[in-house]
Amino acid sequence: MSPPAAAAIAGLKSLLSDRLVTSHAVREHHSKDMSYLPAAMPDAVAFPQTEAEVQAIVQACAEHRVPVVPYGAGSSMEGHTIPKRGGISVDMREMNRILEIVPEDGLAVVQAGVTRKQLNTELRATGMMFSVDPGADASLGGMASTRGSGTTAVRYGTMRDNVMALRVVTPDGTVIKTGSRARKSSTGYDLTHLFVGAEGTLGIITELTVRLHPIPEHVSSAVCCFPDVRRAVEAVIATVQYGIPVARVELLDETAIANANAYSGLRLAEAPTLFFEFHGTGAWVEEQARIVEGIAEEHGATGFRWSTDAEERAGLWQARHDLYWATKARRQGCELFTGDICVPISRLAESIMAARADIDASPLMGQIIGHVGDGNFHTAYLINPNDPAEIAEAERLAEKLVERALAVGGTASGEHGIGMGKLKFLRREHGEAVDVMKRLKAALDPLGIMNPGKMGQEG
Amino acid sequence: MSPPAAAAIAGLKSLLSDRLVTSHAVREHHSKDMSYLPAAMPDAVAFPQTEAEVQAIVQACAEHRVPVVPYGAGSSMEGHTIPKRGGISVDMREMNRILEIVPEDGLAVVQAGVTRKQLNTELRATGMMFSVDPGADASLGGMASTRGSGTTAVRYGTMRDNVMALRVVTPDGTVIKTGSRARKSSTGYDLTHLFVGAEGTLGIITELTVRLHPIPEHVSSAVCCFPDVRRAVEAVIATVQYGIPVARVELLDETAIANANAYSGLRLAEAPTLFFEFHGTGAWVEEQARIVEGIAEEHGATGFRWSTDAEERAGLWQARHDLYWATKARRQGCELFTGDICVPISRLAESIMAARADIDASPLMGQIIGHVGDGNFHTAYLINPNDPAEIAEAERLAEKLVERALAVGGTASGEHGIGMGKLKFLRREHGEAVDVMKRLKAALDPLGIMNPGKMGQEG
Fold first, then answer.
1. Which 8-state DSSP code applies to residue B455?
2. From the list B180, B186, B442, which residue is nearest A416 (CB)?
3. Is the pTM here over 0.95, yes or no?
4. How confident is the model over A222-250, as pLDDT tens digits?
5. Could you give phi then psi for residue B44, rounded to 5 degrees?
6. Which of A53, A435, B325, B356 is the residue whose CA sits 20 to 30 A from B120?
7. Which residues of B touch A171 (CB under 8 A)?
């Protein structure tokens, strides 16, 4: 351990006591995430219970110039929480209180360690829901920091759209609040959106005010499969362009369906498949359903099956969310190297076709799944993380994927973020704007202690 | 004229020729906006036609430390475009080309001087619309800079939600691009949202990529009046909480209705009135209509009148947009001193009642209108701008209005912005976060030349 880290830890010991941990096991747990990326050990892991403790941690680290790495649920896919340069990993799990639920204003106030499932469980009696649903049961602080989304973003938006206000401990240990409880505001620079997606490089989010949505009166879902991926995607494009507010529309290619069948005990036909969900009042859900069924059939869909049965629907979406595990189960000891591009909807079919062709021509096993209503899809390549050749091949595929996305006006990441895995794409996507990002980082974190070596310092 | 301004102007003369104007009339036109705030003359007005010319202007001003004040349509209500410290007013009206319309991706790319009506006229044949509609025919660059909105924000969002990407000349004369054409992205700090609402203090927006929405298949509107303001607002709250996606819902109090009747030749009953509009497919519009009519009647609405007639509807909304002029017409030589708070929807009735009581107890004439579905409403006090006692009285009312909004978690401005008129409220609303804003301003504009003396430097 470096002398500065030792000094910071010593200074915090009396405040945090056994909530400042230096054991190998706990440090190791915080050295990695859900990606293939190489682990790096923190010097210690802190488990603050209050905002004042977070402040104290940041102040101690600022005093000794020790890295501070915010840690939510550890479900990052791009190495966000890996303490690249050591320091203190600040695990927010004990700051998991739901502070306020105000159904009449469609908002909740939570500490950053609250997870999405925890919040939705608590909301059940209120008739409201928190909509953003990445696959993992992520913490809301983490989801905000990566500007995360999931299957319902096409209808209800991403964390960008669902975070109304924040409390943040800035790199000098000051607490600020951003935003308000009003639906809109024209006062001041939009600091909320600066911290949403900043990946813990500008401060630690301690508290969030998030939007809630009424649980829809009626929900209807449908599954249908297509002769090929192109026609499946074209059906989605037509649906979106028609203006149907689908609540969810997910594409699973034939490989993904096979993985889901094997892992989750489904018996779906192994063909490119769309999962649809519609939310609304009764007549409206029925109207959307009819229109989309017509569009799908025009694009060659078969086996169109509607369901309003809640249990069947939950099973299907659980299988979708479990695809990370289903895919890993296909090859022992493998890790997933994931792509996560998002393109304008009109370029989606060609993007997915090209990605599929790349996988087919590669020795790696891979699948494509997507939140296709947004133009966002994931490739997942199964790699042996100890085989440099496989990593290199996955990197080659990911590179081609991103270059094509940028060429059509898209982005290198729809929802997983930059982390460590995609740092090299930051400048390719944003050009000289990266220098502006670096100036913002330097202005707010002049000592460079917040999640160092990542966005705002490199790229 | 100061020697630095003279030097900057001399340096730009050969590039801009007669598009760099120092005549008194043109400077005077750019010395004020639509507010009561005191005018201030720029040293010159530039009319750039290209981004390179904007760059040259900013570079010349940076070299000589001369203020640069971006100017759109001059329809600010809070003094944004008033050159408080002189310098060059950069009028973007000649950068008014619509560069690209991509209906299949629901987006358009426009230069900053394009106005909302110009864009919608151009869009007519495409089946798409640009939704954001402040009263004035504002420029899109100006609307983005103030994070503007209007009557349809409750359904389609504000400029925050409808700007996807920007090109910006930063205060050192660099051109950057922010955002992408993808619907969502998790790459990099959210610079788009930093410039949206920055009120021209961090750079000059030269180009915007904005979201378009399909023109709805069916539109239906309704007017109804209520025995008192409280019940009108309670009907709105119930509608929003029910989850009905109203496209518009505007409140006009009895004074506003009287003004609209007089100016626009309407014959509405002089009582608190709601204008509703619904967008969607046929069955869905009908379903929304039925539900809302039921809610309104439960709250004592009378004279409920539905209309699907486009001309009648257009007349009603024009009257709504013309209220600025209708109100000014009530008193010769007066200016409007406007309030613009936004509160959580559950606190809207009490906020409006209190605002109305304040007006009734004041010698000033005033009205209340509101984009009430968002929780946003405007007070307008008719003042003689040359009578300090009347300004003081309006300030006293505005102060009370804002204090009450902040006390319930609201904001000092829903859509008009901070400008000069609301600078004093910035710290009251945002506390220490204002210091973070100042650090961002200093990082991006170290010379302090961009719209100086406003947000980022004061508050």
1. B
2. B186
3. yes
4. 999 999 999 999 999 999 888 888 999 99
5. -160, 160
6. B325
7. none
